[in-house]
Design brief:
The protein is α+β, with helices and mostly antiparallel strands and about 220 residues long. It folds into two domains: about 120 residues, Hypothetical protein (Archaeosine Trna-guanine Transglycosylase, Chain: A, domain 4), CATH 2.30.130; about 90 residues. The chain has eight helices and five strands, in the order E-H-E-H-E-E-H-H-H-E-H-H-H. Strands 1-3-4-5-2 form a five-stranded mixed beta sheet. Strand 3 and strand 4 form a beta hairpin. Helix 6 runs antiparallel to helix 8.
């Protein structure tokens, strides 16, 4: 199981995520809410059916109280369809079943803005083929980035060679406009990055082979 953050919703709220009528999750502005980052994928669990769906965080609303947040944001994103007075009362009732008004006053509140990902699967839900295809895509992107990084390194090497030649002849340009130490430091960082990426490519390729040729133990081969 991956370490994806989990949000638990009642059945009616879960269904509103699926039908698109709820794109903001209301919660306290506590440590858990603050730990959610833009772009992060979250797992949402239906507390009645145990069904799961996935969303990606795209932003935040941060206010002092749930009522203030309700009055400031687009009400069509919250998944409530009654009058404002009824909606506010419903939100407070739902929230205060999970926290005390004192907690609201202490932490403030946060609306997690998200987009529903109907086709997303976590790693533990993927078939071997889906996981293999996913790894191949990552591997392809990693190799592309590796090639780009190596190209930049070649260009930097050319520049360093030119600077070294100037330095040997005590050319004034080397002292007035450049800092060889900084260039060498950058080159060192790039070299480390390439080594790390090469290691990552090896790991990904190894995982591809493991999926192509699963072990006998994994599938319970009696031999």
């Amino acid at each position: 199981m991956d370490d994806m953050k989990l949000i638990i919703l009642k059945d009616d709220r879960f269904k509103k995520v699926l039908d698109g009528s709820m794109t903001v999750w209301l919660t306290l502005n506590d440590d858990f809410a603050k730990s959610i980052e833009i772009g992060e994928i979250l797992r949402i669990l239906n507390d009645n059916t145990n069904d799961v769906c996935y969303v990606r965080c795209t932003g935040f609303h941060v206010y002092g109280t749930f009522e203030e947040l309700y009055n400031k944001v687009d009400k069509n994103t919250l998944g409530y369809n009654k009058s404002d007075k009824e909606n506010i009362a419903l939100i407070k009732n739902q929230m205060y079943m999970q926290c005390l008004p004192e907690h609201e006053k202490k932490h403030g509140v946060r609306g997690i803005i998200f987009e529903y990902l109907p086709n997303f699967k976590s790693f533990d839900e993927m078939t071997d083929k889906e996981l293999k295809d996913y790894i191949k895509e990552i591997n392809k992107d990693c190799k592309k980035a590796l090639t780009q990084t190596a190209t930049h390194l070649d260009k930097l090497d050319d520049l360093l060679g030119f600077l070294t030649t100037l330095a040997k002849h005590n050319h004034e340009l080397i002292f007035n406009n450049t800092d060889p130490i900084k260039f060498n430091h950058l080159r060192f960082l790039l070299l480390n990055r390439i080594d790390d990426m090469k290691e990552l490519v090896k790991i990904l390729e190894k995982r591809e082979k493991e999926i192509d040729y699963p072990s006998a133990i994994e599938y319970g081969d009696p031999t």
